[in-house]
Amino acid sequence: MRHVRLYVNTRQDLLLRTRCVKTAMLLPRLKRRRWKTLILQVFATLLLLLLLASSLRWKDRDVDDTCPVDPPNLTGPVNVNLQEAPVLGDVSMDHLDVTFGGYWRPPNCTARHKVAVLVPYRDRREHLHIFLNHIHPILKRQLLDYGVYVIEQYGDEPMFWKGLLYNVGFTEVLKNRSYDCFVFHDVDLLLEDDRNKYSCSSSPRHLSVAIDKFNYTLPYKQLFGGVTLLSASHYQTLNGYSNLYCGWGGADDDMYLRLFHKKLKITRPDKTVARYKMMRHDQTKLNPYRFSLLKTSQDRYGHDGLNNLHDMDYQVVSVHQYHLYTHIAVFVATRKIQATNRLVTNSTD
Ligand code: NGS
Question: Is residue 169 within 8 Å of residue 328, measured between CB atoms?
Answer without folding.
Answer: yes
